[in-house]
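Repro case for the chain-ordering regression, as requested:
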Amino acid sequence: MTAPRRLALIFRRDCALLLGGSRGRGGAVLPLLFFLAVAMLYPFGVGPDARLLARTGAGVIWVAALLAAILPLDRLIEPDLESGFFDQWALRGLSEEAVMLGRIVAHWLCFGVPLMLATPIAAALLAIDGQQLWRLELGLLLGTPGLAAIGVTIAALTAGLRAGAALGGLLLIPLAVPLLIFGAGSLQPGGENGLVLLAAASLVALAVAPFAAGAAIRAARD
Amino acid sequence: MQPCRLAADDLACRRGDRVLLRGVGFALGSGDALHLAGPNGIGKSSLLRILAGLMRPYAGRVEASGAIALSDEHLPLDAHRPLGAALAFWQRIDGVVAGDDRFGLDDLGDVPVRYLSTGQRKRAALSCMVASGAAIWLIDEPLNGLDAHWSTVAQAAIEAHRASGGIAVIASHQPLALGGLAVLPLLEHVP
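-- result from build under test --
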């Protein structure tokens, strides 16, 4: 059995686990509901003025996406670390980095993509017009992979700690701020360049994350 | 099975800021078995993890040739999935077909892993290790939770593995009924 085939099997398991949820921890649905709930509650909070909603709504969607990214943190790495899956994969000669890269992609598929699919609904609730929705979706497409990469890294760093879940949320917010600034900034008039910076921030996170998360898993063994 | 080897030279093991063991050394070849004996907390499990290459030794070296399988207190099976499906994941990873059912798990195929008893979990863990096809077995407390019948079966599986040219290192506080078993009393290595 070669390493790529093993990694493909692990990736399939990652997807099934992150999509369906397990061990009393919700799957992909919970962050999605949270995301839509924010979009639904915001108009109640600031009133039904369509102009105000349209002007601020896209930024609210970005904040909601960032906060929704906190919800799945405690089930990204912790359960598998607890059950010894990472040890068994290491014994079979699979590098932690490769396993972590697979998990980042799986997490993005089960978190980023559903968020993008739900964004038109959120946009309708916040009176965002078609052109802005298009720009918002493009921004999420560029930004959510970075958000997924940061999420997996933090989950690996805090796995096994007491109060790891709460700590993870606190750690994610500052690290994800660049994505929020460039993502929400790209929606301002003349802010198209924000998309380039958003893509760059996302790529940096994606490039660093597998190594940082892999090192965190190894450090957790000692 | 290809010839395999596992040797430890002057190993020391540290947990936190305490050195648990010092000067542990042995050399094992195909067909050998070693019993790491000692009371709870002496560092048997840590020593196994060092031998597996998952933890760095505080001092000394480990040399291994041959694939290593570790069966410790973790059960690497998805708790919410039925046992059959959870075992099938490792069978696909290790590229083996569901073979012999010497640990009597076929009848439990539909039972979610989280509902298994202690003994059943141990049997599942041992079955994973047997199926991995690795030459070097590192087993932590193989008889914990097993009744007389399954203890015999587990020890027979270890004997069969040795007969086919494998190595077994067993950490246990219980006596084992294996022929030609070398015993390493870890109490002698406490600094």
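Ordering looks correct now. Residues 11 and 186 of chain B are 12 Å apart (CA to CA).
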